[in-house]
Amino acid sequence: MDFDIFIHILIAAIAAGTPFVYAALGELITEKSGVLNLGVEGMMLVGAISGFIAMAKTGSILVAVLCGMTAGALMAGIFAVLTLTLMANQVASGLALTIFGVGMSAFLGLKYTSIALPGVPEIHIPILSNIPVVGQLFFSHDMLIYCSGALFVAISWFLYKSKSGLILRGIGEAPKSAHALGYNVIKIRYMAVLFGGAMAGLGGTYLSIAYTPMWVEGMVAGRGWVSLALVVFATWRPARVMLGAYLFGAITIAQFHIQGFGIDIPAQLLSMLPYVATIVVLVFISRDQNTIRLNSPASLGITYHPNVQ
Amino acid sequence: MLLKIEPRSEPSKTMKYMSPLIAAILMLISGLIIFTLLGKNPVEAFHAFFIEPVNDLYGIGELFIKASPLMLIGTGLAIGFRASIWNIGAEGQLAVGALFGGYIAIIFNDSNSFFILPLMILAGAAGGIVWASIPAFLKTVFNANEILVSLMLNYVAILLLALLVHGPLRDPDGYGFPQSVLFADSAILPILIEGTRFHAGVLVACAGVVIGWIFLLKSFTGFQIQVAGLAQKAASYAGFQYKKLIWIGLLSGGVTAGIAGVLEIAGPIGQLLPSVSPGYGYAAIIVAFVGRLHPGGIFLSSLLMALLYLGGESGQMNLDLPAAVTGIFQGLLLFYLLAADFLINYRIRITTPQQEAI
Predict the structure, then answer these.
(1) A:249-278 residues touching chain B, CB 8 A cutoff
(2) Residue A300 domain-assigned?
(3) Closest Cα to residue B200, out of B61, B12, B29?
(4) Counting CB atoms within 10 angstroms of each CB, which of A188, A279, A306, B176 has the fewest?
(5) What is the span of the domain harbouring residue A131?
(6) How wide is the angle at C-alpha A259 spanned by C-alphas A256 and A263, nearest 5°?
(7) Residue A192 domain-assigned?
(8) Is the pTM of this model over 0.90?
């Protein structure tokens, strides 16, 4: 394979992996607090259309990003009220959120299906971007990709070096003990869920304003579900989330390049690739039950309320 | 005056049945608000959405046609949900069922045997089973999360159906359109009520609901499923094999979704198309919950959900309401139900500060 093509695929894989980075890192924080929100797909969709509308109306990337994040957080807020305050089943509530998000985004996007946006410009960092290969790979992206890198650094620091991160993880492991120590479990879980929603919304916005700058109904196309799988694949660790996100970015890109290499495979078979890969990866990581048990937050998916024994 | 939330000493039976009703009423009220926000006359829109579709015999027939796959799949899913086995792959299982059943119809297209339809239904059931056994196998052997696996397989199944309908199963005389030949009369479900499209498949679906009811509430395995859902530890102490329940929980959804796929292609559609379902597999999840995971309730909630589909179509034609409104209603219905379920275990009491002090 030509080396240049290889580099191009890697660069494209980083862009394709970025929605996963945002959504999966957000869900990672939510799950670390012990809450399983299966509504990522719905939050990404509503984030995607909200960011898209804001971008189409104002032309400002910042406004688009803020709108996408707010929309994602609002969606997560519905989930939080249901599961944290009203103690509804987290699996059912997450599914409801996704079904609602699919309908809501289709509804909001009705008038925006035939608009194309200019996209988000690349910023070539002076000097660094001139380094051969490395410069292309790491210093010639759009702003939102740099931000996703910064998010990874921030989350890694937060989870493992800050006191708040320790509290968050503690709540995910043993909410009762955290409550006994005087922490407000419900409030902190609310914040974790809202943060996860904002990040899913941002991931969706990245899709609709930067990666493919247009709105197509259902354009998230399962990326929210893949992000959920990535958190499991990463055994709840941020660095592995990044690895998984770019791996899936590469798989998404691969389907476009395989045909380019003159291999004649029907388009539908190639489109199956990311979904089949998700299943393979899940099987691979889950087959050792202890890995999952030791790494997943102990209270994940279990309803807890301090007033209820 | 204060609102005080206090736990009930035991779950309220009344609220258990009231909460789907409360959810439905709240959804209708939200509907009025949404219609008003869209600049429509709410009464007129309400009429077009919820009454017009079912104010004649033809409309009632349509209601049952749309409700059939929903009640059938909802019953199958409920069996799994009761044991906390989350099969959300019904949409894919439906597509594979339609593919298997449709294949029978296509290869026997010049036969007028009575046995074609039963064979199609068996093939559809087999297709659903094949597709649902993938997450069951991966869950029982590799511990892979059945929610994610079954969901991913939805995308794969829909692509598979599209691939085959664009390719080998395409009608050779169809001017290249991605669709199969029209099925012969022997592969089409007979119409039971003249002047409507009410077909024999509705009876198949109702029979499925009854069988599901007997299985879930009268059989020992059904009892094991319920125990496993309520208290998994108790179930394992009692020696129930959880792996067996995982298989049953997933395959029950697969069988029903596969048959529902055949009812669609042998009923209203009459051929294989790249897409054979407007999201019945997902809507059936809501149907199962709103029906309280009980086949009787599922029968009723499937009619409500079918009305949402019909209302969406009618609203689009008569009032230029966007069809996506249906999806919003479906989501809202489940939200309201989950919220109203809070009242099963808790009650809200209005107290005055004085009472509070005592």
Answers:
(1) 266, 268-269, 271-272, 275-276, 278
(2) no
(3) B61
(4) B176
(5) 3-113+125-295
(6) 150
(7) yes
(8) yes
